[in-house]
Design goal:
Rossmann fold; 174 residues; 5-stranded parallel beta sheet; 34% strand; 4 helices; 9 strands; globular; alpha/beta; binds adenosine monophosphate; two-stranded antiparallel ribbon
Length: 174
Amino acid sequence: MAATLDLRTFIRDVPDFPKPGILFKDITPLLRSADAFGAGVEQLAAPFASERISCVAAIESRGFIFGSCVARILGAGFVPIRKPGKLPWTKRRNEYILEYGTDALEIHDDAITESDRVLLIDDVLATGGTAAAATALIKEFGATLVGAGFLIELAFLEGRRKLGDVTTQSLIQY
Ligand code: AMP
C-alpha cells in the first residue's frame, strides 16, 4: 500500500444530489480501489490504536462500510446506529437535523454498556447534526466516547463544533 496515496483523488463530487444545491461527496471510487479503501480504514483506526476501544459504533449506511473494518482493525465489536424502524430489538432514539432534512437515529438498548470505550465512525461530517445525535445517544448509555472518526469533513460547515470536546479526526477536509 502506497504511503503517499492521496485519498482525496478517490472522492467524486456529484452536484445537486440528492437535492439541488448539495455537492455530494461520492465515496464509491475510493471503495472500489483496494489500496485507497485499505488506506482509508487503516488511517481511520490508527489514531485510536492504543485507546482500548471496545466497540465501534457507526451510522447507517455508508458508516457501516468503514466502521466494521475499523472495528476489526482495532479488535473491537461493532454497533450499528440505524434510522427508525430498522432495528428489531428495544432501542434508544435521538432526533436530529440534517444538511438536507430531518431524521432520527436508534441504537439497541443492550448494545452499549457503561464499561464500553466507544469510537464513532461515519463517512462524512457535514453540519454535524447526525454525529452530534449519535454522540448524545452513545453518552446516554454511560459509556466513554473516546472519539469520532470521519473519512471526509466539510470543514466550512463547522460540524465539529457540534461535537464539543469529543476528539474528532478526519482524513480529508474540504
Ligand atoms: P450532517 O448531519 O449534516 O453532518 O450529515 C452527515 C451525514 O449525511 C453523513 O452520514 C453523510 O453520509 C451525509 N452527508 C451529508 N452531506 C453530505 C455530502 N455533501 N456528501 C455526502 N454525504 C453527505
